Amino acid sequence: MSTRTINNVQNFSWKRFMLQWEWMLIALIIIIFIVNSSISPYFLNFTSISDATMTFLDKAFIVFPMVMIMIMREIDISVGSTVALASVVMATTFNAGLPMELAIVVCLLVGALCGFFNGFLLVKYRELSAVIVTLSTMILYRGIAYMILEDQSSGGFPSWFSYFGWGYIGPIPFILLLFVILAIGFALLLHKTVFGRQVYAIGSNTTASRFSGVKVDRIKLIVFTLAGVMAAITAIFLTARMGSTRPNVANMYELDVIAMVALGGISTAGGKGKMLGAILAVFVIGYLQYGLGLINIPAQMLLIVIGVLLIASVTVTNLRVKGKFKTSSKSDSKEKVS
Amino acid sequence: MRKWWSFSFLLVIFLTVLVACGQQTGGSNEDNSGDSGSEGNDGQRHAVIFKSTGNPFGEKLMEGFETAITEAGDEAILRAPDQPTVEGQIQIIEELISQQVDSITIIGNDYDGLQPVLTKAMDRGIKVLSADSAVNGASRLVHINQADPEAIGRIQIEAVAEMIDHEGQIAILSATSQASNQNLWIEWMQTELEKPDYENIELVEIAYGDDLRDKSVSETEALLQSYPDLKAIIAPTTVGIAAASKVISDKGLQGEVVVTGLGLPSEMAEYIENGVSPWMYLWNPIDLGYLAGYAAKALADEEISGEVGDTFEAGDLGNFEVTETEDGTEVLLGDPFKFDPDNIDEWKDVY
Amino acid sequence: MMESNLIRYVSKFRELGLLGFIIILAIVIQFLNPAFLTLGNLSDMLKNTAILCILALGMMLVLVTRGIDLSIGATLALSGMITALTVSAYPGLSPFLAILLGIIVGSACGVILGLLVSKVGILPIIASLGLMNAFRGMTFWVGGGDWVSAYQMPDSFKGIATSNILGINTLVFIAIIIFLFFYYFVNNTITGRQIYALGSNPDSAKISGINANKVYMLVYTLMGGLSGLAGVLWVSKFASSQGDTASGYELTVIAACILGGVSINGGVGKVIGVLLGAFLLGVLDNGLPLINVSPFWQMGIEGVIILVAVLFNTEIKKKVEKNNRLRRVI
Amino acid sequence: MSDYVLELKAITKEFPGVKALDNVHFNLKAGEIHALMGENGAGKSTFIKVITGVHLPNKGDVYLNGEKVVFHNPKEATKVGIAAIYQHVTNYPDLSVTENIFMGHEKIKKSTRKIQWKEMHADAKALLESLGSDLNPKTEMGSLSVAKQQIVEIAKALSANAKIIIMDEPTAALTHRESEELYKITERLRDEGVAIIFISHRFEDMYRLADRVTVLRDSQYIGTWDVDGISNDKLVVAMVGREIKQLFPEKQVLIDEELLRVEKLGQAGMFKDISFTLHKGEILGITGLVGAGRSELCQALFGIEPYDEGAVYFEGEKVTIKTPADAVNLGIGYLPEDRQTQSLILQWSISQNITLSSLDKISHKGWLNNQEERKMSKTLAEQVGVKTNSIFNLASSLSGGNQQKVAVAKLLTKDLKVLIFDEPTKGVDIGARSSIYQIMIDLASEGYGIIMISSEMPEVIGLSDRIAVMCEGRITRFLDKDQATQEAILEAAMSKQTSKSQVV
Questions:
Q1: Do chains D and B touch (3 or more CB pairs under 8 A)?
Q2: Which residues form the ABC transporter domain (chain D) (predicted)?
Q3: Contact between C197 and D92 using a beta-carbon 8 Å cutoff
Q4: Which among A129, A140, A259 has the least Cβ separation from residue C264?
Q5: CB-CB: which of A194, A207, A212 is closest to D360?
Q6: D 356-385 residues inside an 8 A Cβ radius of A
Q7: Does residue B31 sit at the A interface (CB-CB below 8 Å)?
Q8: Domain ranges of chain C
Q9: C13-34 pLDDT per residue, tens
Q10: For residue D480, with 0-12 CB atoms within 10 Å meaning exposed, 13-18 middle and 19 or more buried, which class applies?
């Protein structure tokens, strides 16, 4: 109909490339490495750095699905409780006579179930906000964990199980290896597949996505279930590191995870941000914490640092989104189909 | 507008961080005196990890530890996670392993949960001992026991019996038993109660206040409601005993219901003076830390190895011997110390 | 139509339903342990619920504006700690000044959050999450890791929680005053109604000339001030101040609001409802130990009740909307 | 004193990239009803917002009773007695009727600043009664029907002592009977000396009520006439800008076999008893007043809000459509009414928008192929004639018409057979309009069956092969192309009495 031709080759722009948030995070990591090794002689050696990764990577698995959840403009604050419940159920079923391999499967199932339940409630009751749903299940899941184990701890796992928490493959911690593999997997899933594209679409404009034939409900269910599964994986690693578990493990993990995702440049207004950013943020917070630990900074200072870092990073990401962001508004966060 | 606020906010943060850093390098903060030091190069470094920050018992214990280590001319590192969790302690231990400290003294948040990381520390040549709240025998070389659990359990029953003339209902208000100490003591209390001397004493309930103020208060109130004839509450936990005493004072039940157990003199001074708690017990956390400090030093110097029969000298406290327990070996500090109206004044400002 | 009338009735008198539930619960507990409905126990219960009520009322306004405040536990601890340190250093300080100090500290915390939400434009859940960490850290920091104990506090200060005013315990008295204030404020002042208008429809509010930022500042500052007040009362009640005071308490407060029928989507929330919501939790806290429910079951039971309340609410709302639609055409 | 209570001279309002008002004049006498007419996107809403102080004009002056005034915010306009009742009812659904009426000017006791509920409830009741309504002022606003909310809005304007009331498409969502009531209220207000600006694109409203009429077109002022002094045809030309027929390309009528058959479709509270058929190559126009259930019907066909009763046959087979994905899989596509919130993701590139609904075509086993995506979006963007230089430009950078073309291009990515266009030219400028019509005609001749929902009479008459007119949830009449006249359609759209026998 029209003779006009439209360009379909994207020019590479240095400016756009360099203005990415991820560079800021990489710069932060470099600064942290420099500062850490200058204030502590124990930081800059291979064992130290690989030991460090082992201490903070367990909760980082939840970061992957949380990135997707926050891109979809939702939130899940029940993940910490899910970790606790999955871990407790795993230990209990094992001590009730189930082989460890099966107990691990049960753990993953419990995680998946918890996540699915969150997703199900959100999809069934579209008018409910994710904050309220996951706040309720957060109390509920940990409550169930307490019902099962009360204040006891449960452990006595077979020795091979501790490999999850402490094992090395060559010089590389097993947990790091798995993290990298999953990180690549999730990054590809989010950025290179139809599924990922649809996740962004949902976060940018849920109604338009639904009208475009995107199966919004199904995708939300999948992502929330994934969050549950990843929480269960965290539970496995955490339990393996402790060799036993209790209902109060993984307390406040959700906050750490959300802090990492927010620092990773994922806009709280939905639709924006990259997996890489969040992965880098895991290392920023992890090494920062570890470095401050090496100079034996008191725990309370650490709390302040993390809190301020979270707010500062969100402020900066907000500045980048420039004015588009509105403080939570009903029409913003909840689609209206009618 | 929003932009302006954002920038000014970031500026405030930046300045605050600068100021905080400035203070940090000023390094007058006692808590982290450990970081200032590269002075004595051949000096050893000994770390102690308490359950969580903001606990006066812990502060005093670490103070004692630091005194001992300083006396020996070494450097002390005092750490605690912000929450009483195993995860937090694991992270700290990893950091200490990276720093290649010479010894780690742990006040465990869980009996078994620290075994993997402590084993790793020992594999890297770090001497590990526990104090106050033990970790299992496989994860430590020796445990510094504040007092014999048997003695702690029995002495509280004896005290209660004396307070209520060997007759009436009593209840126990415990913490959560995660650190397993309380459960062990309660077992010994129950054993002691089987003696014919106490046949008129009835233990009606063991309640758990979770070591939370509000919870301990409601549990105490529930006990008083459910058992109107209750004569005494034993609270072998510092939070529980203070909460229970507070409830009794507020209700004006002095003399009708007595409270005893294990409490901090500073927290309990008020109630010992007003008679709610005629007396109570605790060990001296400063001494406990002090002893742990010397034990850590002795282990690091390979003066002792944690075997039964080893002996070492702990500064002003004299000589101690390593003894056998059901799970591993231990060093016993001594009997619990009794705090009563006569001596509480001199102790309440100490810890 | 019978059914739809019933539904409309239920939704209108949600508070009555809640009250009914509390009464049934009370009867069950009473049946299992006769010590429950005694004067002594009821007054204990009131005292224990007073602080929760105060905080829940503040949280209600925050939720009505579609916000949330997770930092109140930390704010409570911080202002409690600062007040406790002050009274231990100056034992002659009048308790009124102590309360005032707590309110000022709390309000300052609230102002920071309000600025972050209104001026910087951070989502309330993230902003308050960050501040929660920061305030908690500061509490440990100003306290230097130590506790402030009963003997360090002057009697006048401890007396705040134990004394009586007009024959009513001071805590309860303060809670009643605040309740009355809120009742008046949200129902009978323009500012109070503006809070609801803003939560009900932010875009219209703009057209009506309501200054949204001012309202956000107001509710978060008010919330902070109430947390500060609660901090003083808490410390006085337990005669002890620690770094981890009221850790995680924000969730209980939010739960009370949700039970009381406050909608997290804004615009909806009644003072009476919130009061009843707090009472329900108070009855559970007080009653479950009395009927020997293991303390470890309490959290699970609370979780189930909250979830059921939330879902029940939405179902009712859906039905009402459908009925409205059915009445409309054809 | 001026003759006019309100006068606007040479108002120009620009938004980044768009001139929303260009040199517009307007005046209003006391005690008159002045109709403001124009097609969607002509600038009526912006004009209202200038009067009410929501927008500050870039050029031009506003005079109130002969004095120059500047409104910086809505409150200032309210203060001097200007009230607006907006098209999308802007109220507080969770608050009571009384509060909605008095929002912004609550009655308070001077000394205590206490809100005087009793007085307010009583006043609200009196106000509503004066408008002939027996509403309980304590009712929650959100539970009322649109018509009743409308009345509350009028009461709100009155309570603010408004001397000038602006009604923005108030009858759009009302039934005939409700409209009649509104007319009476409006006339009563006029007789009491209130000046009323009445915005509508229903000629019926204008003839029934207005004394004078002002027409805007494409952001420009066209003219002001006495209603008695202008013929219908002239008014249409004034609004549309040229003879209607010119806009619409010739379409060969080539109606083929049946594609879609709908039998007795119904959805509680929205529509009932809908039956029609759609053939290959046919454009079926569905018209009626806003709120007649047209959009709801089509959204039900597309699976957004499933229907409760009745059956849908696609190519002769009975099908169930529960989700949009079901509909798309069958071959039904939907162009939503509001492209900014329902169709496009504005912060995405043109290319990503075009491919969103058919990602499976540019992917292999779930993996996206960028090469394919670029090729596909380039082809389609060129096919519908989007005016842009790169497919990587953001959708938000396009004008309304070009955005709509992107939305149409989205539909073409799929192997669809039935296309539902919901108000395809809403807010689209004249130029882009004719190209969208061209696209629709072309699609029909390619064999698509097209359902077009539209409120624009000329477009319905000019494009459709058949027209179904809806009123209050039912199809009241089918008109063939040669029977279709504005009058016939209007009559059917307003007829409350549904003759069921006419349903084919």
A1: no
A2: 6-243, 254-497
A3: yes
A4: A129
A5: A194
A6: 356-357, 359-360, 363, 366-368, 374-375, 377-378, 381-385
A7: yes
A8: 17-25+36-313
A9: 677 778 888 888 888 888 888 8
A10: exposed
Tell me if B57 sits within 8 A of B80, measured CB to CB: no
User: Is B207's Cβ below 8 Å from some Cβ in A?
Assistant: no
Q: Please count the residue pairs, one from chain A and one from chain C, whose beta carbons lie less than 8 angstroms apart.
A: 162
pLDDT in tens, chain D (504 residues): 467 888 888 888 877 666 778 888 888 888 888 888 876 667 777 888 888 888 888 888 888 888 888 888 777 887 888 888 876 656 788 888 888 888 877 777 777 778 888 888 888 888 888 877 788 888 888 777 777 888 888 888 888 778 888 888 777 666 667 778 888 888 888 888 888 888 876 677 777 888 888 888 777 888 888 888 777 777 777 776 655 555 666 666 666 688 888 888 888 777 888 888 888 888 889 887 766 778 888 888 888 888 888 888 888 888 888 888 888 888 888 888 888 788 888 888 888 898 888 888 888 888 888 888 888 888 888 888 888 888 888 888 887 778 888 888 888 887 888 899 988 877 676 667 778 888 888 888 888 889 998 877 778 888 888 888 887 788 888 888 777 777 777 777 766 544 443 333
pTM across the whole model = 0.84
Asked whether the beta carbons of residue A207 and residue D386 sit closer than 8 angstroms, the reply is: no
- The whole-angstrom separation of Cα D117 and Cα D98 is 9
- Indicate contact of A with C: 3+ CB pairs under 8 A: yes
Q: CB-based contact (8 Å) between D391 and chain A?
A: yes
B36 touches chain A (CB under 8 A): no
HSE value, Cβ hemisphere, 13 Å, CA-based, for D253: 9
Contacts with A10 from chain D: Cβ below 8 Å:
390, 392
Rounded to the nearest angstrom, the gap between the alpha carbon of residue A214 and the centroid of all alpha carbons in its chain is 24
Q: How close does chain A come to C137, measured CA to CA in Å?
A: 4
Euclidean distance between the first and final Cα of chain C, in Å?
16
Place of tokens 């560079």: A23
Contacts of C115 in chain B (CB under 8 A): 5, 9
Per CB-CB distance under 8 Å, the chain A contacts of C118 are: 327
Q: Note the CATH number of domain B149-282.
A: 3.40.50.2300
Residue B192 structure tokens: 């002691």
Query: For D90, which of C204, C320, C326 is closest by C-beta distance?
Result: C204
Tokens of D450: 């097209």
CATH number for B45-146+285-333 (one of 3.20.20.70, 3.40.50.2300, 3.20.20.150, 1.10.1840.10): it is 3.40.50.2300
pLDDT tens for each residue of B126-183:
999 998 888 888 888 888 888 788 888 888 888 888 888 888 888 988 877 555 678 8
Which domains are assigned to chain D? 6-240 (3.40.50.300), 244-331+415-504 (3.40.50.300)
**Answer CATH for C17-25+36-313 from 2.60.40, 3.40.50, 1.20.1260, 1.10.3470:** 1.10.3470
Rounded to 5°, angle at Cα A56 from A50 and A58? 105
C chain contacts of residue B9, beta-carbon cutoff 8 Å: 115-116, 119-120
In terms of DSSP bridges, do strands D67-69 and D59-64 run parallel, antiparallel, or are they unpaired?
antiparallel
**ipTM here:** 0.81
Element (DSSP H or E) covering residue D168: strand D164-168
Residues in D 241-300 with any Cβ partner in A closer than 8 A: 296, 299
Distant-in-sequence, close-in-space partners of A290: CB < 8 Å, separation ≥ 6 = A36, A43, A52, A55, A56, B91, B94, B95, B98
Residue B329: name the closest of B110, B141, B149 by CA: B141
| Rounded CA separation D149/B230 (Å) | 65
